[in-house]
Amino acid sequence: MLPLREIFGIAGYVIEAIGVLSIVVGFVLSAAWFAARLWRRAAQDAYRRFRQDLARSILLGLEFLIAGDIIRTVTVDQTLTGAAVLMLIVLIRVLLGIVLEYEIEGRWPWQHKGGKG
Question: Least enclosed by CB within 10 Å: which of 11, 76, 96, 113?
Fold first, then answer.
């Protein structure tokens, strides 16, 4: 029987793999939808939607990647270096999340749904 620490480590890696898979599948689907939209509509609208769809898949993947990192850092890699790396990853994810939210919604996360500015 595996020790609990190893089980949590494996779970962290599985969750991270789901995150990477989410990004890859999201990219493939976004690219396919982009090609279909490009075939039917104006290029500008197709490109805008492609960026939004891709940003959504990246955000979803980042959530899984962060969850896997948190699980591994808290249960397996209980060092100050591991915590510092996790802090940097979370900081980068927050900044990416803010930028991608602007990309998807056309407004900053702290703005009301009135539009840009």
Answer: 113
